[in-house]
Amino acid sequence: MKTMMVGLLAMTATCGLALPAHADDTKAGLYEVSEISILPNAMKSKKDNVPGMIEQMVKDTKGDEGLMSIKVTQQIGQLNNYTVVEQWKDQASLDKHIAADHTKQFSAKIEDMLSGPIYQRVFSVFQ
Length: 127
Description:
Layout: H1 2-14, E1 30-37, H2 40-44, H3 50-61, E2 67-74, E3 81-88, H4 91-99, H5 101-110, E4 119-124
Antiparallel strand pairs: 1-3, 1-4, 2-3
Helix pairs in contact: 3-5
């Protein structure tokens, strides 16, 4: 099942389904696909506003240089599972995003709420 999910995510990312800002951008850059699974109890907690944390992460990431697009999806029937698809201009832009304070802060905030590790994969467009 995990292999199938990763394959489907890879296909989504490499086919350019994370809608870019411009049509020409579908053949550019790198795609980082992150799978985030939150513990069900954390989703129910009023003190842990997971959707708000994800919205803030998207807002902060949109300010990063080199970001071409970002899309967050939520699994139907399993609302504690998220997939984030980011398109970056180049590896240097992605590296700066990973090293950014806001990225580290987001990771630290949700660490205790995760049901497992965040699976992150980087793809290029299929040539």
